[in-house]
Structures are given as C-alpha cells and as structure tokens.
Amino acid sequence: MTDLNQFLTRAERVLERLEAILPAAPTPPDWNAAIAFRWRRRRNAAGLVAVTHPHQIRLDDLQDIDDKKERIVANTRQFLAGKRANNVLLTGARGTGKSSLVKAVLNEFATDGLRVIEVDKDDLVDLPDIVELLEGRPERFILFTDDLSFEDGEPAYKALKSILDGSLAAVPDNVLIYATSNRRHLMPEYFAENAATVHKDGEVHPAEAVEEKISLSERFGLWISFYPFSQDEYLAVVNHWLGEFGVPAEAIPAARGDALQWALLRGSRSGRVAWQFARDYAGRFEA
C-alpha cells in the first residue's frame, strides 16, 4: 500500500509539471474593454489583449483611393448587416494605405458592432482557437493580418488556407479575414516554376508549385489592388495632412518643393511618405 501511495504521489507531481508545460486554454477577454484586440502568445499561454489606444485614422483621411474605400466599405456593410460578404486581400505598393484602410473601417463602424483582432503571421496557426472564442458573440469580427507573406513550408500558410476555405468546420458567420500583402500571391515565385508550365492544345497548364501558390490568394473573395502614387496624388495627400496637422491653408503651397524633395530622398511617393513629411514639416512650422 505504501508503494502505491508513493507511486500516486510521484504521478501527481509529474502531472503538475506537465500542466506547467502544456499551453493553457485561451480565456475570453473583457469584450467591453476595447474595439480592437491583439492575439498574443507568451510562453505557454495565448489570448486576446485589448488595444486601448487604436489608431484614430478616418476614411476621409485616405486620399485618392476612393474606389478602394467604396469596395471595402460595401463589403463591410454587408457583413455588419448579416448578409453574405467576402474575405479581403489588399495587395500592392508599400505605404499606399492598405493597413490604414482597415483601421479606418474599424473606426467608421465600431459603433455598429465591428471589432478587429490583429493576428501576427506567425500566430496564424492559432486561428482555430481564436475563431472558437468568437463563435456566438453578437459582435462582428475582422481578423486582420498585416504584411502577409510566406516562405515554402510554413505551417501558418496551411492554417490560413484551411480557415479560408478548406476545413470541415465552417467559420462562424460573424468572422471575416482582412489581410494586406505586398505580394499578390503571398509566396515567392521562381523562374524555374514558370518554366515548368505546360502548353497543351493551346491551353496553359501551370506547374503544381505555381498552382499551390496561387491557391491561397484565390481563397480571398475580394481583391483590392493598390498602386504607387502619381506626383499630383502624393501632393494632394501631403496637403491634406498638413491641414490636419495645423498648417494654415495659405502656407501649404510653400511646402510643395520640400515635399517633392522629401519623396525623392525616400525613393517613394506614397501616403506613408506624405504623412511622414507632413509631420516633419508641421513640427518645423510650429517652431
């Protein structure tokens, strides 16, 4: 009997050690604490952390992308109304407003029950756990992944692909995925893969490697493409932000030369570069 008691005591100690090692089940956050959350994994625990100070950008702050705004706003309105809506992939040039558009949509529709959960690419393997937390909630959730791209063999790639359109379990109707990427097909493409493409009877049959890379982006129902700004578009964004940062309207035209020089030195004309210039110029103007 003594041996049995010793065995049971040792077994209990082993179980305690295993419990400390095994990941704990995620617990729901205080849903009233914020309109945006981040999925964070620390050691063996993961959960949703409230974003107490989300970026307060507005749809009106995003200049010269009106067609993009219309498409994502229409999709989001359908989603909030309980109608059919699509997962969204925003692709294209860096700094042109892809992630800002998602943030602006949150600020526009937060009072209608929209919530955004930011998920890092490396944590996409946790998507089933996240979705389980959201199922049955009255809010409507956008799972947002920024700057999405994959290398061959990454487990997060297959996890996202399965959630989008490949799992036996259906995603709840109160969840959509919005992602941004500089790559339209989300994975690197190599010349050798294109060389393996077969032409048969006038039809093009892409190699299996190419098909695999295209298959993920095709699971997003709505593609929104962004392009580099023209000089006039860049200057229009500069003028908008100078006004927002308090530079008097009559003083804004004088900033034109500095704004163009700033873009030349950065090697890019984009909304991000325009915003950065306006912050710098407004700061110097105040001085």
Protein traits:
two-stranded antiparallel sheet, seven-stranded mixed β-sheet, 287 residues, 9 strands, alpha/beta, single chain, 10 helices
Characterise the protein shown here.
The chain has 287 residues and is an alpha/beta fold. The protein has helices spanning 2-21, 66-80, 98-109, 127-134, 155-165, 191-195, 208-218, 231-244, 256-266, 271-286; strands spanning 36-42, 45-50, 88-92, 114-118, 140-145, 175-181, 198-200, 203-205, 222-226. The strands form 2 sheets. A 7-stranded mixed β-sheet has the order 2-1-4-5-6-3-9. It has a two-stranded antiparallel sheet with strand order 7-8. β7 (198-200) and β8 form a beta hairpin. α9 packs across α10. The longest helix has 20 residues, at 2-21. The model is unreliable at 190-194 (pLDDT under 50).
Globular, elongated, flat, extended or rod-shaped: what is the shape?
A: elongated
Low-confidence spans: 190-194
Supply Rg. Answer: 24 Å
Specify the biggest β-sheet.
7 strands, mixed
Supply the helix-strand structural class.
alpha/beta
Strand order of the largest sheet: 2-1-4-5-6-3-9
Helix-strand blueprint:
Elements (H helix, E strand, L loop, with lengths): L1 H20 L14 E7 L2 E6 L15 H15 L7 E5 L5 H12 L4 E5 L8 H8 L5 E6 L9 H11 L9 E7 L9 H5 L2 E3 L2 E3 L2 H11 L3 E5 L4 H14 L11 H11 L4 H16 L1
Parallel strand pairs: 1-4, 3-6, 3-9, 4-5, 5-6
Antiparallel strand pairs: 1-2, 7-8
